[in-house]
Amino acid sequence: MVIKTRLTELLGIKHPVLLAPMAMVSGGHLAAAVSNAGGLGLIGGGYGDPDWLQSQIAHAGHARVGYGFITWSLAQRPQLLDTVLEQQPPTVMLSFGDLVPFADRIHAAGVALTAQVQNLAQARQALEAGADIIVAQGGEAGGHGMSVRSTFTLVPDVVDLVEEGAPGTPVLAAGGVADGRGLAAALALGADGVLVGSRFWATPEALVSPRAQQQAIRANGDDTIRTRVYDVVRQRNWPPDYDLRLVRNALIQRWHGNEAELLAQLPEAVSAFQKGVADQDFDVDTVLVGEDVGLINDIRPAADIVAAMVTDAARILNRDNNIQSASESPTIIAAN
């Protein structure tokens, strides 16, 4: 099945499904698997380890992949942007920071700039910076983001804003998308595609330990929480506007809401955390996944996830009469 939108046209891909560039999870193998399945995989540049980034570029092989960075961290190692622009990717995605210092370099390389936003103010700033694609991320998402908006309401708000200020700019939905129902809902809300994290986190290609993945399979959305505790104990100095969603455990239960006490006992807490990570003790370490973790019941290859997501979305949207097989000339199916 083929679903075409403005996103697939802009990026030259078959399916409107992008891999979220999850830090230290979305490596070259996973990004290549999503791209080879017809979506677009994005390697997560994370906190800026140049050796790791080079190794993942190599692991992607000849697959056409994009890249994503934590913007405030990229500002500390701006040379990493040159590393990925040399690959001539279809897009570079920036999240959690000011796009302006990087936008001109990305555009000068002939690469589309994707900007992830968590509210309307950030969406306006992204358009002013010249973003070619906007990702509207709701608070349901795993990992870092904001708690203020849900995907279901943020996406149409951003779609309307973009149509007014920069008509034709594709919008993606992120946060809570794990299957064809999520893709169909995103398209119905006016988005041109989806950015998917947690569902691809639970794949054999992801850089995630099997034990961590089994922890996620046993969890549901009610088990997740947004907190800053995890960043404190692993000593990641994130801007105060951002927290992250993860599966709660004994560590989070102990310190969430007691951050002042945690800071007072930080050396001991950090030492205990580091030992827990080394031992894969999930009462201490945890998994960074979204509220859609309850929809994840198995570890499946990324290609299977892409295919099932698109097929199910097409069925749900009742577009069977307008969707042709990939062997035929595909019909353009716009999201808007």
From TrEMBL:
Keyword tRNA processing: no
Keyword entries, A-Z: Flavoprotein, FMN, Oxidoreductase
Gene3D superfamilies in UniProt: Aldolase class I
GO molecular function: nitronate monooxygenase activity
Keyword Flavoprotein: yes
Listed InterPro entries: Aldolase_TIM, NMO
Transmembrane segments: none
CDD domains, per the entry: NPD_like
PANTHER family for the chain: 2-NITROPROPANE DIOXYGENASE, 2-NITROPROPANE DIOXYGENASE FAMILY, PUTATIVE (AFU_ORTHOLOGUE AFUA_2G09850)-RELATED
Protein name per the record: Oxidoreductase
Species for this entry: Mycobacterium asiaticum
Lineage: Bacteria, Bacillati, Actinomycetota, Actinomycetes, Mycobacteriales
